[in-house]
Design brief:
The chain is 69% helix and 9% strand. The protein is mostly helical and 172 residues long. The chain has one domain: Skp domain (Protein Binding, DinI Protein, Chain A), CATH 3.30.910.20. Strands 1-2-3 form a three-stranded mixed beta sheet, with no helix packed on it. Helix 2 packs parallel to helix 5 and helix 3 runs antiparallel to helix 4.
Length: 172
């Protein structure tokens, strides 16, 4: 955290605010990526999402295996089947393939939606903790590392935010 005391600004830059000669600001910086990656809330949400995705992927894999088995059967037994049986099996394969592709697309969309929801929820939690910390410590400005080229470790409060996130997570 950085304190700027007695910041003198040339009068021509301040215009009507030229009377202000000494200001006292407290500035801090955060690295949002580091906060998110180290927070237990992120870990929990990621694990829940992975479990949900794993179940769905297993079902999709099973459907793909069934489809592959039908295709192999068609290739292997087509010569022994009647034209009607070949046509029925071909239509079944085509319908299953279409349904599988649709289900895969739905799964991708659902995953993206859930990831976005997770990011939004986690972002709000981080914002609450950062605001709380700023008010408690009298910080006037907190900048995000994403929008800044460089900031000193002296003003970096990311680890403090992570610790607060852990404490809130454990309090649940």
């Amino acid at each position: 955290m950085l304190k700027l005391r007695h910041l003198l600004v040339p009068a021509f830059l301040l215009g009507p605010l030229a009377q202000v000669s000494a200001l006292d600001y407290v500035i801090a910086a955060i690295d949002p990526d580091r906060i998110v990656e180290r927070s237990p809330q992120y870990e929990q949400a990621r694990n829940e999402l992975q479990r949900a995705v794993a179940e769905r992927e297993l079902k999709l894999r099973e459907q793909q295996e069934e489809l592959n088995a039908l295709q192999q059967r068609l290739e292997r037994d087509a010569a022994l089947m009647s034209n009607e049986e070949v046509q029925r099996l071909t239509n079944d394969i085509r319908n299953r393939d279409r349904k599988l592709k649709y289900a895969q697309g739905e799964a991708r969309e659902d995953l993206t939606l859930r990831q976005n929801e997770m990011r939004t929820k986690l972002g709000k939690q981080v914002e609450e903790v950062v605001t709380e910390l700023a008010k408690e410590r009298g910080i006037d400005l907190i900048v995000s590392g994403k929008d800044v080229f460089y900031f000193s470790e002296r003003i970096d409060i990311s680890d403090e935010v992570v610790e607060r996130m852990r404490a809130k997570h454990q309090a649940k």
